[in-house]
Amino acid sequence: MSTSGSENHTNYLNDGYGVKSWLLTTDHKRIAILYMISITLFFMIGGFFALVIRLTLLSPNGTLVSADTYNKMFTMHGVTMIFFFLIPSIPAVLGNFLVPMMIGARDLAFPKLNLLSWYIYVLGGIFTLSAMVLGGVDTGWTFYTPLSSGYSHTNVVPTVIGVFIVGFSSILTGLNFIVTIHKMRAPGLTWFRLPLFIWAHYATSVIQVLGTPVIAVTLALVGFERITGVGIFDPNIGGDPILFQHLFWFYSHPAVYIMVLPSMGIVSEVVTCFSQRKLFGYRQMAFASMAIAVFGFLVWGHHMFVSGQSVYAGMAFSALSFLVAIPSAVKVFNWTATLYKGTIRFNTPMLYAFGFIGLFTIGGLTGIVLATLPVDVHVHDTYFVIAHFHYIMVGGAVMGYMAGLHFWWPKITGKLYPEGLAKFSALTLFVGFNLTFFPQFILGYLGMPRRYHIYPPEFQVLNVLSTAGASILGLGYIIPFFYFMWSLRKGKVAGNNPWNAKGLEWLTPSPPPTFNFDKTPVVTEEAYAYPEEDLAGG
Amino acid sequence: MDNEQLTHETRSFVAHQFDDLEQQKEAGTLGMWAFLATEILFFGGMFMAYFVYRFSYPQVFAAASQYMDVALGGVNTGVLLVSSLTMALAVHAAQEGKRKQIILFLIITMVFGTVFLVIKGVEYHHKFVEHLVPGFDFHYEGAEPGKSEIYFILYFIMTGFHALHLIIGIGVLTVIAVMTARGRFTKEYYTPVEISGLYWHFIDIVWIFLYPLLYLIHVHK
Amino acid sequence: MFNIPLFPTEASTTASRVDLLFFALMGIIVLFTTLIFVGVIFFSIRYRRGSRASRKGATSENMKLELAWTIIPLCITMGIFIWASKLYFDMHVPPKNAMDIYVVGKQWMWYIQHPEGNREINTLHVPLGKPVRLILTSQDVIHDFFIPAFRVKQDVIPGRYTTEWFQATKLGEYHLFCAQYCGTGHAQMVGTVIVMQPWEYEQWLAGKSSGVTMSSSGEQLFTQFGCVTCHRSDNTGRGPTLVGLFGKKVLLQTGQTVVADMDYIRESILDPRAKVVATYQPIMPTFKSQIDQAQLMQLIEYVKSLGGSQSASKGNKK
Q1: Which residue does chain C place closest to A318, by CA atoms?
Q2: CA spacing 20 to 30 A to A355: which of A388, A400, A490, C10?
């Protein structure tokens, strides 16, 4: 197939150097880089808020910052991390870069729309950032009414405008992926030959397209309520504040799957490559991704078990929430089975994938605890919930993002990162993460409510542990930042396929040429067609 | 899509990322359908809120809907339906490659769209004069002013978002008309005209739901 | 400082039942986590690159295995679901003999009224071994009444009544937290639940009592606001009589019937034209701006005292 072996080939990075060639690019790979830079920025901002939160919680008296400041910190931590980092993270960066390459296309179906998505993201970011700079917002990222609509005195309106806008960036990215995956696959690339990464992005895109508009309109309603002073959710005139929660979670629960599904896709790619083995249960994995996307829309009510909704509604949502756990379990089992009789290498992406499997297992199983009605009554809105969703979103989604970033870094930049340091920081992340969030499970069951900056003194030791863990976790994020930067100049040249991986993206030079392939590849085999028996030592 | 900077690759209508015209057409059409799915969910959120309150306070909603101008709303329904017809005629003209006809029908469609907006503006003005705009000196004579206010705020938000879509629709048609004039479409390739038509019909259909749900509640009673 | 609790006190009848379920779940979690961790670690060592372990017969499809690990977890979760639903149901239905205590949440304090007339702020005294039902509402935003030691939690919502119940099993003082974020002072919206011996509780009631019960306060309000001129005891007023009303079905002008529960009475005071009783005129004015949440509860307690069906007094409708 089409590869030009030369090191100095024309590629997407040296195809124009001016600012304009970046800001007006329609190349999905350059747009991916633009996204990578912007989400890293938001990750740092969100990380700073987390730092303030953890430092405040060192002492039970909450003396570091005032109550108002603390409330703003966790609100803005949630808003930036969820809407501006996690949701765009894998789809907009790695998905953008890889979806066309993995299916043998020259670009996404709508390259200009793709660029527009990024500008929309930036515009949304500017609104939300200015809301933060002008004094912040303190409603919690969940914007529950009537607190958000009538009682908070902070910058709710610019924040919800920002989130409203950024939603459309997410919708357009999803739309672009759906059309691209449907219509632009290379000859011979049938649905069941697609890499799981593509399946995962397809499932994610469906959620983005169908879920995001609902939160957009819901937050618009909150905005109107604040501007006019008359509310749709205002109990004083007969409005129903619980309706807001239904509409909010109709998106925000599936949004969790927007974050974790692409991560699962990455893990499938990484586990097969570093086991040199076909994925176990390919079809089940593909169906599981779709099942998660579909069932994900039916479980929002499990966020509302103590909201006063009827007992029967609670039971129905509980049963459906148990069901959505099954495809996730199937995925974990299949990854584990893929290792069986593989030829396993322990490169950094694989370590992150192991991290994902372990942490996602714990996160998922504690999700079962939360789906169990009477136990949820006790742990709802406590640190148990915080720990659970950080295991899913940081232990799951971010670990997957790191796995993917390391796995495809050679493809994206043409350079290798330093393996030893990378392994060290992966280990640091894993240890730091567990030390940060495991104590929070215990805190939660003890009854420490979330969003408290003052807490009873008996919870202090566990909180101090958590903060100590967070500092290790922070280190684990800072090291990769530096060695990635370093590798751009000093890293070893990667070559087309440093991992001996399968998949169309590895057939083309690193970094890839502007139109990805010199000649459209023709696919003749299934995904992950690693040689049947790579004899020991191979 | 115009791809001025990429014309070195091909002078035809096929954008660089597509293999052939067929693929480009299919992608455009699927893209619009996916976008309409998003739109349905967007309005779906508002309809959900509407139905929750309509079923909680049926009498209040019926009473408040009497303040709607059924006649003006009816005229507007007619205007939009006719605009959908002219839009369909524009697409038909595009199929036959009749450039002047396309432009003519697009302009007529936009005129009808504008008429709709003007009438809507008149209705909004009436509501403003009658103090029925929530948040702007709202004053309601009938029973249950609070719950009625929910009806009115939903009325303004739903029809407001609908009007916003219509404004965007007129903008899109303007672009399409200009592109037609520049000869961007042929008998073989007119997908942008077709999918703008889909969008326009969608806006029309949303109104077909809004009109009875907002204006005709009391008639039904 | 180094007295680090790792598990919360069990101080209610519910607590031990919730904990049992929690331990069962923990067992499942430990089992599956171990299974996965051991599997991953064992396979990666055994089949590391360079190891001589045989790779013969490696497959990537096994329908039986796929079915097994779909169906077994499904059965386990459905088993838990049934167990959990039973307990959840019990946690929602208070025993018939439960005593009522009224709670108003507002930014950022808990205002508590006992039917005997005692009022307290951020403290809740309850007797040991007696089922207590809390009737909760909020004056502003959504709060949540959370007592970890009892494993109970319930959102406190403006514009409606919710309930939660418990039966304390252990003397002592326990944390009371607001668990639903409610603005600046959320973390200070905390208090103490004090479980006393029933006789101590009686003493406390008598000692601290203003001497005016909630229902007699309600009766005073009933006179003060002039309710009594229309709602007479003998059905001769311009409004329907309230005697024997509570918990009964009421026929409305629209032909529908509603149960006269707490939410109905509350709505009828604040928004009298929403549900007008058949054969009466919608002439009652609203008392929205004159009555606060605590007084509303007193009026409801008064209406309750006029008789009716106590069993239908669940606040948690919808």
Answers
A1: C81
A2: A490
